[in-house]
Structures are given as structure tokens and as C-alpha cells.
Amino acid sequence: MKNALTMAVLLLCGTAAAQTLNVQMDEVTYQIPAAQAGKMTYNDGSTLTILGKDYALNENMRMYIDLTQVTDNTVGIAYNGSTAAVTVAGNIARYLTIAVNGAHVSIVQSDDVADEITYTLCGTASDGSFTLAGSYKTAIDLNGLTLTNPHGAAIDIQNGKRIAVSAKSGTVNTLTDGAAGTQKGCFSCKGHTEFKGKGTLNIHANAAHGIWSKEYVEMKNCTINVLSAPQDGINCNQYFRMESGTLTIDNCGDDGIQVSYKDDGTDPEDTGSLTIVGGTLTIGNSGAASKSIKTDASVTIDGGDVTLRPAGTMTIENNDASYSSGIKTTDFVQNDGTLQITATGTASRGISANTITTNGGMLTISNSGAGQTVSNENYTAKGLNADAAIALNAGTISIAMTGTGGKGIKSSGTYTQGTADGEGPLLTISTSGSRIGGSSGGGGGRPGGGGPGGWNPGGNSSSGSSAKAIKAQGRATLYGGETTITTLTDGAEGLESKTAIYIEGGQHYFACYDDCINSSGKIFFNGGVTVCYSNGNDAVDSNANTTGAITIGNGIVLAYTTAGGPEEGLDCDNNSYIQITGTGIAISAGGSQGGGGGWGGSSGNTISNAAQGYAFVTSSIAYAANRYYTLATADGTNLVTYSFPASVSSSLALFTATGMVKNNTYNVKYSTTAPTDATTAFHGLYLGSSHTGTTSVTSFTAK
To answer: Which of 699, 688, 691 lies closest to 629, judged by CA?
Structure first.
């Protein structure tokens, strides 16, 4: 040993070349650049001190000199079957305590470490692991690693600082843990975990989570595949942020990504939030009541391409129901990017939050989850479900609900669409699921109709739940955007508010089996263009039972039903409850107010204080498809042209249009040629046209 030591010292002193002193202790090799070695102390024949670290002089020690280029502050760990070799480079040896047991490597960094150390892991082991403890930020490079630990976590970082994990470019790295272990994750980290690089990391978790981080998780560039996990794919505190790369999580027994709020009262990063800025995120989860994304605070989509596939079943415990969801959070905001959610679980949700806001991007939800009745309580699927408020300010939004009783949008508070400047989303909602539970009884007091206050003397509607496109407990306000809503089944309404509905702008088309627009309160058409076509009930139905129940301001509405009497175009139980406060356009066609059996009470045909001329035509009008009807002045000036996709039998029609004057005569005539010069053509409404009809339908004198 003395000869080897003497030779090493002589070689180091005898040349100025870039030499490296290698000190090998069993499976660990320390590489010390000659320029840094300094004075070496030989201690009583038992130890050798180099750069502050004592090396035991024994038969397992080997020292040699070579020309290896050393990168300071790096540690390499090469796994090879049942063994692992560790190489420590630079002057950091004195800060590290290293233990190697077969292919299980454990390293403890002392608190005196002043510079970041990079650990590079490579090779293959079927019974190995990497454990690192310390209190200084650290980097871990995965450079072609396949590591399985049957007894615990494959990688366990017991360090509360920032840990930068890089999957090196062109490499595939695979981690697998043991089902019998007590670890929280296959990859487990006590600190902040930042994944990066341009390589791939595959995770097979068998005990708990795929990736567990006690603090935040960030992701850039790399590809991560969590291919299985009995619990969450990724579980972390503080926040999760994805800027780029590809993250795929599948076969999870619980949530895809769960972010918890970790409140220590001092750290501003304790937000409990998830943010997607870019990259591609795909999550499939099938655990009972599991969520693809679940956070304690907020979810923000600023970009990227996100696909979620929640498939878990509903659970009920102590009368508390829990559902599978694409996103479960407190506040959801989408500003850009693409979010696609396909939900299949019973009574599942696309997005469930306290508030839901869209300011841009593309949101697509397809939910086939069936409703379920438990102890006379009906549980139904939702596309968007909010406790306080939903505001769809912008973006392209498509929601399709096919399960029984499914609701496209459900707000227990307010619903707002578009912004005050008239801008808004491109919104498409369809429902095709049948009613769950008892029969609907339509909107209220008569078979299929809408009586005062929605009362139904038949008495069995309260036990069921119908599909709905949009349902809000609070006020619903449509400022702008373009809406297309389709419902196909009994009781399936287009837009319902228990408080009031204000249409202030935008273009909105409803083709519904049941009421297109329904409110327990008042309905206002103050702006925009609205077309309501019902083939099984009223087109517009207010149960406010008071003056102004339906108000025509400066908006434009075409409301009609093909169901026949007693269903109505504009139903508010009494024509005199309709108010005309502006210079808008309203054309309705359908049955008479009050209908059959007297459920609606009497109905007058006079509107008090109307701001422009109007008329209720109570004579029968037989409208036919593929005809274009023009409301015009006596001299033939076009006020509005309209058409229908199917035959409409009308015994009550409201006519009011911009420029109509009391006591003047107006005509309705049709032709079979569509207008070609309309400034606005929207689902059978033609505005700003000079079109004239050729065949008389009706005429009247305005009140």
C-alpha cells in the first residue's frame, strides 16, 4: 500500500499534464484532479487524508493515476445487474457519505455542501435503488437507466430543496417500484421537483403514487409516461406547472394529478394550483370517483394540448356522493390551448369547480355517463358544474351529453356568456339522454305545457331529472358569442334559470324538444338575435306570472313550436304580461296563452305602454317549411323575413318589429325563394333584406 501511495505522489509531482488521482474504495471511485489534490496526509498507517476526506488504508483500496477529464461536482452511478459502481469527481468527496449494497446506492450530502452536485444514473438493475439525502439543491441526470426496486421506491430523494431531474436527450429511462413497499411514490422526492430534458422517463408504480413530491412539480421538454399507479399518477403539494414536453398518465387507481395546498404560513408558492402553459398532457384514470386533475385551489390552462379520460364510477358514503371528473378544483380558468375531456363514469363531471371561466382556447367535453337513482335521489352527469358562477367569456366550447339526465352546463349560482362589448364564445351544446326517474310533465301545469309557477297537478315530475343544455339557479346573462343548442328528449330544455334570463347580445339558436328558454323569473331580449325552435313544448316560457315576464327590448327573437296547441311560441300565461320596451323584433308562432283545460288562466291581447307597434294574431296560420315569410308595411317595405324548418300551426302569433307604428296596416306574404341580400341570415331569420312575398298569409292593424 505504501508503494502504491508513493508512486501516486511521485507521478502527481513529476508532471504538469492534466492528471487525475483515482482512489477506489470497493464500489466507489473518487476522481481528484491533480491541480486540486493539494497536500495529502498519511495518518499512522491507517488512513490517508485528501482534500479533507479520510480514506481507510486497507486491502480494498486502490489508487492509480490516469488522464481522465474530471468534471467537478459530479457523481456517476452505473448499474450493472446486481451491482452498482459510483464515481465521485472533483473536490466534493468530503461532503458525501456513500453506501452501496449490491445495486442499492445511498448517498448523504453534508450540510456544508456549497455547490450544486449533479448525479448521473445509467445502466440496469432488477433489484436496485438510488437514495439521496441532504439540504442543498441538486441535479439528477437520467442517462439510459432501467431501475427496479422490489422493496421500495426506485428513486428516493430525501432532500427538501430544488431537485432538477433531467432525462437526457435520446435516452429512455424506466423506473419500477415494489408493491410491498411503504414508499409514497415510485419516484419520491421531499423537495421541489423540476423535470426537464429531451429524453423519456417511464414510471411503473405498484405501491402508491407514480411520482410523489412533497413540494411543487415543474415540467419542461421531456417525455414522462406514468404507465401504472395504484393511487395518483402524480401527487404533489404547493403547485404543478407544465411548460412543455409530453406527459402521459394512464392506468391510475385514483387521480391522474393531485395538487394539495401546503400551508406553512411563509411560502408564497403554497398555492395548491395547477397550470398548463404548453406541451401535451394526456390522462386516463378509472378509479372509483377519481379525477384526472384534482387541486385544492385553481387550474389554469394557458396553452398546450390537454386530453382527459375519467372513467371512474360514482361512490356514496354517509349520504355524500362523489363523482369521477376530468377536473375537480376550486377555480378553473382557460385562457388558451386545447382541452378535451371524455367522461364515461356514472354521474361524472367534465369540470367541477366553484367558479369556471373561459377567456379563450378550445374546450371540448363529451360525457356519456348515465344518471343513477339512489334512495329516491337522482344523480346525473354534468359537462361543466359550478357551485358559484360560470363565465364563458370567449373560446370555442363544445359539450355533448348522451347519458340519462345529463346536464351540459350546471351552475348553482350565475351563468354569464360573453362580455359587455358583445364579444363571446362559439358555444355548442347537445343533449340526447332520456329523463331519469319520473315523467317530466313538461314545464308546468298542463300536459307538456307551462302553467303558472311551473305547477303540475299531475304530480310525478318532482321524482325525476331531465337532461338540460344550460341550467342556472341564479341569473343567466348572454352578452355575446354564437350559441347552438340541441336537445332531443322529453323535459330537455335549452336554457333554464330559476332567477331571470337576460339576452343582451350575440346570436343564439335553440332547437329543443322541450322549452328552448325557461325561467321561473323574467326573460329579457335586450339585444342580439335569438331563434327558439321547440318540437315538443314551448319555445320561450316564463313562469314569473307578472308584467314584464317576457320583455322585448332592442333584441330580435323568432320563437316557435311545432308541437301544436297548447304549446306556445312565447308563453308567460297572459299576453298582457309581455312588455315591449325597445325597437327590437319579435315573431312568435304556436298555441294560445292558457291553452287547453284552462291551466293558464285568462289572456288579454293588450300590452301596456308598448314602445312600438305590435299585434297578436289569433286567427289560424298554417306555416310550411321551405317558404320565406316577409312582414312588411302596406307599401311593401320589408321589416323582417323568416322561415321554418318544419310545418308550424299557429293560433297565436306576436308581431312587432323596428318601425312598426300603432294603427298602421301590415302584411305577411310568402314566397318560395330565399332572400339573397340579407345583411344577417341566421337560422331562418333574414334581416336587412328587400325581399317581398308573393302570396298573402295574414294582415293586421298594429296596436
So the answer is: 691
Amino acid at 474: G
Helix intervals (H) in 371-457: none
For β-strands 61-66 and 20-25, DSSP reports them as antiparallel
199-to-167, 216, 265 alpha-carbon distances in Å:
5, 21, 37
Nearest-CA neighbor of 518 among 571, 555, 558, 567? 571
The bridge status of strand 273-276 relative to strand 239-242 is: parallel
Contact 48, 5 (CB under 8 A): yes
Query: How many CB atoms neighbour CB 61 within 10 A?
Result: 16
SS3 assignment, position 81? coil
In this structure, what C-alpha cell is assigned to residue 668? 305577411
Residue 11 has pLDDT above 70, yes or no: no
Q: Which among 512, 444, 503, 511 has a CA at the least distance from the CA of 477?
A: 503
Please state, as a whole number, how many other Cβ atoms lie within 10 Å of the Cβ of residue 69: 9
Q: What is the pLDDT of residues 580-630, one digit of tens each?
A: 999 999 999 998 865 433 344 346 789 999 999 999 999 999 999 999 999
- Contact (CB, 8 A) for 627 and 691: no
Residue 226 pLDDT exceeds 60: yes
DSSP secondary structure code for residue 598 in this structure: G
AA identity, residue 573 = D
> Which three three-digit cell numbers place residue 224?
414522462
Does the predicted model carry a pTM greater than 0.85? yes
481 — phi, psi (to 5°)?
90, 180
